[in-house]
UniProtKB/TrEMBL annotation:
GO terms for cellular component: membrane. It holds the Pfam family p450. InterPro entries: Cyt_P450, Cyt_P450_CS, Cyt_P450_E_grp-I, Cyt_P450_sf. One of its GO terms (biological process) is sterol metabolic process. This is Cytochrome P450. Residues 1-25 form the signal peptide. It is a single-pass membrane protein. CDD domains: CYP90-like (cd11043). The keyword Transmembrane applies. The keyword Protein transport does not apply. Transmembrane segments: none annotated. Its cofactor is heme. Pathway: Secondary metabolite biosynthesis; terpenoid biosynthesis.
């Protein structure tokens, strides 16, 4: 062949080769996709189950650096963590990155829920939920929550010598939500609802195999029954609003039905109410009960923290007349108790991270993250960053004496930015009111050293059994 042709081809191919080589070197982060299809899923789930997921991530950080590729649940992805990563994800535009829940979650909870939506749709749903969950509205429910907690302790704690804390707190938080969110009081309806919610919760994080006897199949059936119950409640509340026999904010469903756009059109459809009620029940049922369980364990093992919380709560109790319910102002005095709760969430976050989906290629820290990948955000690894929280393994509630001093997106137990958990204040009231009555009415000690696993949220193997005595 004519040497001129070789030279011409070389001139043409060399720039292309250099471009491709440069693109390849920048295109993907370092790392490995692991085994075909399976990827790293099995070892990741094992780490979650043994609560060693941070160590699992750290081993790969040591090998590949702070950003690396991996494959989980059949999808290629990139791992990121830290304050800057949290800020990027929580504030990223919805044209680039969107939430990415497991298929089973979307199929059981519905596509029109707050965790699936983004942009204006997310803003609309969040705004509707916040119309009930904002502090100025929740103030009026402190007394009702107080009554539910007293009733629970009277039935399930008084007169007992041993308690399994985690199942007891799950029952309590479920009862509180049933009463405040749906107006369902104790009885057959509430008993049926708790079993359905448990099946829905289990099914939403299972393999989406719809055959009899699987968690997913049971979850789908439970969702259908739950939907029927909530639809019946919606009809009842709508009729009560029409007949003016219901207060606009007597419970969440009534509140959602009552809010309208400026043109008097509805904000949420009935199906959107059902979907978001399911998500709120799952989230609220798990997160608050987990936090309270860890607080009970902490107070059994740290006499200094117990003594300080006890003093704070006893002073509030002494200021109340016999049988008088707690108020919003009483909760405002529980500053140390809430700092202890926040420090507990820093070390033991109920949700460790999040998955996101990439809608279009983008550059991040010198790497190209391709469309279709998932982002594995280990958001709570920022909680153990010694540059932000010195001596991070040490339990130190004073870190939260001045929350303004904590850099944004460093403490993300309740999310961040526009995706901050709308139930933050609800969880705070629930936790503080419960701890007030536990500390002022009982003393306790651990029955055994009960370890916990993550599946995907913390769960104590034996339910955290304790021995209790009335004060």
């Amino acid at each position: 062949m004519d040497p001129t042709i070789y030279f011409t081809l070389l001139l043409f191919l060399l720039p292309l080769y250099l471009i491709l080589r440069r693109k390849t070197s920048k295109q993907l982060p370092p790392g490995s996709f692991g085994l075909p299809i399976i990827g790293h899923s099995l070892s990741f789930l094992r780490a979650m189950h043994t609560d060693t997921v941070e160590q699992w991530f750290q081993r790969r950080i040591k090998k590949y650096g702070p950003i690396y590729k991996l494959s989980l649940f059949g999808t290629p992805g990139v791992f990121i963590h830290g304050q800057a990563a949290n800020k990027f994800i929580y504030t990223c535009d919805s044209d680039t990155v969107v939430p990415h829940q497991p298929p089973s979650f979307k199929m059981i909870c519905g596509e029109r829920n707050i965790l699936e939506l983004n942009g204006e749709e997310h803003k609309r749903i969040r705004g509707a939920l916040m119309s009930f969950l904002k502090p100025e509205v929740l103030k009026q429910y402190v007394g009702k929550m107080d009554e539910e907690i007293r009733k629970h302790l009277e039935i399930h704690w008084h007169g007992k010598q041993k308690i399994k804390v985690m199942p007891s707190m799950k029952t309590l938080t479920f009862n509180i939500m049933s009463s405040l969110l749906f107006g369902i009081e104790q009885g057959a309806s509430r008993d049926a609802l708790i079993e359905l919610i448990q099946q829905i919760s289990n099914g939403s994080v299972s393999l989406p195999i719809n055959i009899p006897f699987t968690c997913f199949h049971r979850g789908l059936r439970a969702r259908a029954k739950f939907r029927t119950m909530i639809m019946d409640l919606i009809k009842q509340r709508r009729a009560a609003l029409t007949n003016e026999t219901a207060l606009p904010q007597q419970d969440l469903i009534t509140c959602l039905l009552n809010i309208q756009n400026n043109d008097n059109s509805i904000i949420l459809s009935d199906e959107e109410i059902v979907n978001n009620v399911i998500v709120l029940m799952i989230a609220g049922h798990d997160t608050s009960s987990i936090l309270i369980t860890f607080l009970v364990r902490l107070l059994a093992t740290d006499p200094t923290v117990y003594a300080t919380i006890s003093k704070e709560q006893e002073e509030i109790a002494k200021s109340k007349a016999s049988g008088e319910l707690l108020t919003w102002n009483d909760l405002a005095k529980m500053k140390y108790t809430w700092r202890v709760a926040l420090e507990t969430l820093r070390i033991y976050p109920p949700v460790y991270g999040a998955f996101k989906k990439v809608l279009k290629d983008f550059e991040y820290e010198g790497h190209t993250i391709p469309k279709g990948w998932q982002i594995v955000l280990a958001s709570c690894m920022a909680h153990m960053d010694e540059q932000i929280f010195p001596d991070p393994s040490k339990f130190d509630p004073t870190r939260f004496e001045n929350q303004a001093s904590i850099p944004p997106f460093s403490f993300v137990a309740f999310g961040g930015g526009p995706r901050t958990c709308p139930g933050y204040e609800f969880a705070r009231i629930e936790t503080l009111t419960t701890m007030h009555y536990l500390v002022t009415k009982f003393t306790w000690k651990l029955s055994c050293l009960d370890n916990f696993t993550r599946n995907p949220v913390p769960n104590f193997k034996q339910g955290l059994p304790i021995e209790i005595q009335p004060k």
